[in-house]
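Human
Can I borrow your eye for a moment on a structure tokenisation matter? Give me a protein, with the fold worked out from its sequence. Write it directly below this note and I will take it from there.

Assistant
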Amino acid sequence: MLVRPVHAQDGSLEWMVSLQGYTSSSPALSADGGAIYLGVSTATAGRIVAVTPAGRVLWSVTRADWVDSATAVGPDGSIYVGSHDGRLYALQPGNGAIRWSYNAGSFISSSPAIGGDGTLYFGSGSFRLHAVGPDGRERWTFPVGDWIESSPAVAVDGTVYVGCRDGSL
């Protein structure tokens, strides 16, 4: 996969970096704009990669399985991402070290959404919507009719909206 940022004013290529894999998720930016985080997968493994806005790879952390989930950045800078190994990971922004992981019981393609209180909401292949605190502890799960690939949206009042493969919202 090649990261190719395009200049917003004229559409010209700013730089390009090859990450030796593919991505099916959206990148996230650090709060200070100093890093771009994204998941990269190959046939055998997944990685979370941090790249500077100038195109230099800061770090790369390999996970046990594919990473389809987009990354999300918490208020404290923690990077959250789901994996096909069934875990939601919280990574340190400086080096990608694992702060904690939460076992959802099945693959995670859904990108985490972060509520106003820091709660992480995401779906999984275990037919559940998960709510996990910023400390990695489960707050609750909600059963749905099929697996969840879509990313939840959290309203200002805390209501969580998510689409499910059974066609329901």
